[in-house]
Design a protein that fits this description.
Bound molecules: flavin mononucleotide
Distance between the termini: 39 Å
Number of helices: 7
CATH topology: Rossmann fold
Strand content: 15-25%
């Protein structure tokens, strides 16, 4: 009997305040629990991708673009990423906006992120809500957040959305369903 080797997946993240790392950890745990040979790395300490079949890359959004270390990584490693299964996710405020204007605004992909997607050709791209603390945010930024349909502050992450996306990755990688997925996340 022959067994198919487990897919070798690099889960790479760029974070400023930790919420993107938590989401990357969650995706990593889901893939490992379903049998993938997945590794989790801060993008600045990413291993050589030779030998990996797939990569999941996540970055926080600052000023409508990926964090500089994520953009630089993708630019420098485009040759080795091309030809692999690549998934990209971003963490920002868009998906947490509510109301007709907020939902419309939240669906817009900032131009520089669109350009990365056009270059990288990920199998899929997902935008997740992150964290937004009220303290230290200028009144202008707060007013803009409200106008666009931001209704609350704090941890805005939607773990069900992350779980659903991780499931589509697992499905594409033909990983079996885990009967019990044991994670420390909600
Ligand atoms: C300086 C700064 C700029 C930001 N700019 C954006 C932005 O342009 N678009 C957006 O959706 N979120 C923006 N955010 C919100 C962050 O993306 C969000 O808080 C996210 O959870 C941060 O991820 P991290 O905890 O992994 O750093 C910004 C946050 C900071 C601190």
């Amino acid at each position: 009997m022959t067994t198919t080797p487990a897919p070798h997946v690099a889960v790479l993240f760029a974070t400023a305040q930790g919420s993107t790392r938590d989401i990357a950890e969650f995706i990593h745990e889901e893939l490992v629990s379903r049998g993938a040979n997945a590794e989790l790395h801060d993008i600045e300490h990413a291993p050589d991708l030779t030998g990996f079949d797939s990569a999941v890359i996540g970055s926080a959004i600052h000023n409508m673009e990926l964090l500089p270390e994520a953009s630089a990584y993708i630019r420098h490693n485009l040759p080795s990423l091309t030809g692999k299964n690549v998934w990209l996710f971003t963490v920002g405020l868009g998906p947490a906006l509510r109301g007709p204007i907020g939902r419309w605004a939240g669906r817009q992909i900032p131009g520089k992120i669109g350009a990365v997607i056009a270059t990288l050709h990920p199998r899929d791209y997902a935008a997740f809500a992150g964290k937004y603390e009220r303290e230290g945010v200028s009144w202008r930024a707060r007013a803009m957040f409200r106008l666009l349909g931001g209704t609350r502050y704090g941890d805005l992450r939607d773990w069900d959305a992350v779980r659903r996306w991780a499931d589509t990755i697992a499905h594409t990688l033909q990983l079996p369903h885990a009967s019990t997925i044991n994670t420390s996340h909600p």
